[in-house]
User: Fold this.
Amino acid sequence: MSSLAADYEIARTAKMLPIGTIASNLGLPEEFVEPFGRYQAKIRLDILEAIKSRPLGKLVVVTAITPTPLGEGKTVTTIGLAMGLNRIGKKTVSTTRQPSLGPVFGVKGGAAGGGRSQVLPMEDINLHLTGDIHAVQAAHNLGSAFLDNHLFHGNKLGIDPAGIFWRRVMDMNDRSLRKITVGREGEGVERPDGFDIAVASEIMAILALAKDYRDMRVRLGRMIMARTKDGRPVTADDLKVAGAMGLLVRKALMPNLLQTIENTPAFIHTGPFGNIAHGNSSLLADLIALRFADFVVTESGFGADLGFEKFVDIKCRVEHLQPSCAVIVATVRGLKAHSGKFKIVPGKPLPEKLFNEDLAAVRAGAENLEKMIEIVHNAGLPAVVAINHFPADTPKEIDEIRAIAKKSGAEGCEVSEAFAKGGEGTMALAEAVSRAAEKRHPLKYFYDLNLPIKGKIEALAKNVYGADGVDYSPTAEEKIALFSSWGLDKLPICIAKSHLSISHDPTLKGRPRGWRLPIEDIRSSAGAGFLYPLCGKIMTMPGLSASPAGELMDIDEHGNVVGLAGR
Assistant:
């Protein structure tokens, strides 16, 4: 099979094992495995009690430089590293997020890895999987129905129609639904509303952070959906809808077990947004996998300034997770892009000069990599750099990145050829990760939860992003006072900003200096357990492009998928 073959064509040649065999090889007892077809299964949560005395494996988190429109290959590296660790004798599981249908049909065309580093069956992963996102969508919109029904029947709670925070959701890119009006022509209380994409729902973030059914139910109940006219919060429990929401997502809380193209066990579970939420796969998948494997390789969204920081400050706090090491994915062309010398526009041909050897551009852009290594070190973890290899990369450019990584204190820096070679192409990286994870490295959070809201924001702005300070809008000041009065000031912070820069400004590449972080608004995810400050406009309902990926997709006469995740 040519290395240029489409992902779905490569996947079709793989020999998958029945999911019962994958579970058995991992050591999962049969009574806790609920098959969902031949190659997928859900894992029952009562397994947690049965395995609580088993030793924990080592947790490795994969992060990256600030992503460019080119994509740096974090998912490919995560899956490939898990397969590589298995090849060197380490029993390993990967844990990644589930893709949303909107991006699958819109821009990405798929998100199950790529080439010879995929989780299978890739068509099911990208098209509904076990229906978890649909369950989130149904539960979320049930909350919307209860809220508007409460207004229609007299509004006994005294909800301010202008103080409703709860928008509707849909698992598709549809810009026409960003702003709508509900209750028209007497069919309820007329008010402005809108849709977000389903993975932006707070319920998705709750599923990703809940430790069990009881924890999930408590979190659902404390979601703040609106406020009253006298300024009190109105929760899902106040509207008496949280229990019914829990019924709709009870199966979605169970992690999904699948396999890689090399039959390595893989969990794909939950898909919280990487901006307004924490952008990591589920805590439950990690907790289960860590009891059965030597290593668990998990992926955090975007760069180390976003997904990794939120992995540390939000996800790891819930169950006091202690990761052993972080892998930072970088590409030669990505670092060149961060030099500022090249104009890269999504959907348009790349500049030809980007493929020429340019050590000066690599050095200039590598400031971004140096900052990401620093962020990982500030969390107390060793960093290993993975250079995701592309055909145009030259030996001198790779050597330059190795030298920069070593000077910055990385424990190792290895080329990854996961896309072209699968686990065989990541064995050197796997050895470096195994060495780096040998010692215990106590995790350090980036801020103390007891700090006031502004104190936590400023700790992130200055110590993680490198800002000179923070500026707050009047709206943000009002929200800080409001949330503090509601007792939410001790929650973690989940800053929503551009993923295309360490700063809030996507045009500032590399390692920006001499700037201030603007906080325009702050919103609550009290059920998930964090506040999210907004640094500018954050798109929560994407739109389709002029030529969306769905145009290339089809089904043949045998029911086979055509064009999904193709290039």
Observations:
- The domain at 132-248 is CATH 3.30.1510.10 (Domain 2, N(10)-formyltetrahydrofolate synthetase).
- The mean pLDDT is 95.
- The two ends are 15 Å apart (CA to CA).
- Residues 30 and 347 are 46 Å apart (CA to CA).
